[in-house]
């Protein structure tokens, strides 16, 4: 049974930082690209960041220079370090193996809420 379990979300003030984690089980983690998506209320789900099995990364323009995706294959975990958070970063953040974005396949976590507010 495949499980992707996100953690690390919460409430943070603008300019603050959070680190999201996604622990995977039931898959051969090291062969998968791992991706963070987010969905804000009333908006479509969008790509945040992706890291391939080889370690190449992709970022949405809106988060470049502020967010960093990384992975630890020994721990079957992918991370998203989020710095300089803005209110517009408020969303539910999902961990997924869906890559590229246009793919129809992929596993998903249950999501973790990130709220940026003063």
Describe this structure in words.
A 6-stranded mixed sheet has the order 2-10-9-4-5-6, with no helix packed on it. A 4-stranded antiparallel sheet has the order 1-3-8-7, with no helix packed on it. The chain is built from no helices and 10 strands. A hairpin with a 5-residue loop joins β5 and β6. With 118 residues, the chain is mostly beta strands. The model has no long low-confidence stretch (mean pLDDT 97).
**Could you name the ranges where pLDDT drops below 50 across 5 or more consecutive residues?**
none
- How would you describe the shape? globular
Number of helices: 0
Find the count of extended strands (DSSP E, 2+ residues).
10
Mean pLDDT: 97
Radius of gyration: 13 Å
Please report which band the strand proportion falls in: under 5%, 5-15%, 15-25%, 25-35%, 35-45% or over 45%. Answer: over 45%
């Amino acid at each position: 049974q495949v499980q992707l379990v996100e953690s690390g979300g919460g409430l943070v003030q603008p300019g603050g930082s959070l680190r999201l984690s996604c622990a995977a089980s039931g898959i051969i983690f090291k062969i998968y690209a791992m991706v963070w998506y987010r969905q804000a209320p009333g908006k479509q789900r969008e790509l945040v960041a992706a890291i391939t099995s080889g370690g190449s990364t992709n970022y949405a323009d809106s988060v470049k220079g502020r967010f960093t995706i990384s992975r630890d294959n020994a721990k079957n975990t992918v991370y998203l370090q989020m710095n300089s958070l803005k209110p517009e970063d408020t969303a539910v953040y999902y961990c997924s193996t869906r890559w590229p974005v246009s793919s129809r396949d992929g596993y998903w976590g249950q999501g973790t809420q990130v709220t940026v507010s003063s």
